[in-house]
Amino acid sequence: MPSNGTGQSNRILRSQEWFGARDLEGFLHRAGLKAQGWSEDSFAGKPVIGIANSWSEAVHCNSHLRDLAEHVKRGIIRAGGFPLEFPTISLGEFFLSPTSMLCRNLMSMDIEEMVRGLPIDGVVLLAGCDKTTPAALMGAASADLPAIIVTGGPSLRGNWRGEDLGSCTDCRRFWSELRAGTITQDEYDSMEEAIYRSPGHCMVMGTASTMSALCESLGMTLSGGAAIPAADSRRSTFAERAGARAVELANEGVRPSHIMTEAAFKNAIRTLLAMGGSTNAIVHLTAIAGRAGIKLDLSDFDDLSRTTPTVLNLKPSGKYLMEDLFYAGGVPAVLKRIEDLLDGSCMTVSGKTLGEEIADAECYNDDVVLPREGAMSDEGGLAVLKGSLAPDGAVIKVSAASPELMKHRGRAVVFESPIDLKLRIDDPDLDVEADDILVMKAAGPVGGPGMPEAGFLPLPRKLLQQGVRDMIRISDARMSGTAFGTIVLHVAPESAVGGPLALVESGDMIEIDVEERKLDLLVDAEELRRRRDAVAGTVGDSAAWHGGAQREERGYRRLYLDHVMQAPDGCDFDFLVGNTPVETHVEAPEHAAGHHTG
Ligand code: FES
Question: What global pTM score does this model have?
Fold first, then answer.
């Protein structure tokens, strides 16, 4: 470490490059804070902690983060730091069209560049809704400045006519009942005020809850925080503690790359599997790991799945909701159940190892976090399938599927796109039987574009009215983590780039065998070659394989289509993989000597 000649380090926090110098630039930087009413004693010489806030009224799950940031600030000031809150773009599942996933990488770039460009020594990431948490971690991993994440917490349990409701598992369940004619439109409408009773993200083990929980097992948030309901005052104190800890992380120079190691990602995968968490987490974890310079393969998920029991009894795979998990002991209670399968030596942002964090964890409700001997399944909730229909892999959430469909051969009923599906699924003349397999194309990363959560194909109305409540459905789309059913997703390569999915025709036979991890299109190679040549002959070049996706001439969507990778690579942009660490401390400039250090 460089010295100033007195034997002491000559290194200073990077924020002092902005605020420490007694020159024109230092003058302007300090004036910028004084213009907001801060005296110099408030910030001089102190670690500056950014608060990257994804608050937005267009994202109801994150609509309380503006208030939560105030509690983070309290912690930062209490610990001797100076808070600097700034907005990031925010991505919500409900309002953003065509899909929030289209902008996950954009948000990660926003966060990376703000962290890189602002005068901060560390950052607290405020996130919540599905894509905001992975985007924040991706950006933080690439900038690699000290960081800690505070998720916004789940909404309170929904309640309708005395029944607990979970969003949006039960929104979907009752939507099917409405279409089947077993409830009325008025009854369905009356649930709108009952499903979300507070701010916060979806309260089942959907993508937001999954990613929040994985922040704990990755070590990027303080232990016990993921399940605290957004409306519980303990979320505020949790945020305050995180703010205080961020100051220490900045002083210590602890970076995300020190926390998000390969072993930590393996812990996160184990946690995902033990929780029966969202299939989307496979894509997000792969992308986050890629930013940290770690290559996750689909086989990592499948290998660990075979030896990880599913111990969490939450919807959509089970019975309870996130609020119940909090009262049962939170994520630490889940981690304690699989402690022997985790690498407890992984360091967390608290300064303790994961093993130390869960050493005293207790479970207060064995029906929510099941004992190992009473696990929902001896294997994890997810499986990776491969075969002639998905040479690079596909994913199924076994824990939310029908056991009797785990080995099945059926006739394909094909929809060329989500729009085609919408137009024809309820056609009384649709040729479909209960043991057919619904197939949808053109909903992958390129074809969507943005890999929309369109994989929860609705069942044909005429089958619903016959009492059918599940069928095998296959697509290159994603599925909301709140959804359920025997649904095969993320088929790769996707149809829009020429995967075999593009060649499936109605009437083809498809075979699925989850135990054997197989997904095959039972059409001989010669016939598939004929079909491929026919498409190429019609269109003449590779443009044939952009099934339905419009080519973009300009803007972010052009960047997206030119650079997005397939689902097994996390749908990140090829040029964003890896990181470029920001310096945490810099050489003290001559003119900073003798500066007021507070
Ligand atoms: Fe935001 Fe479900 S809509 S988490």
Answer: 0.94
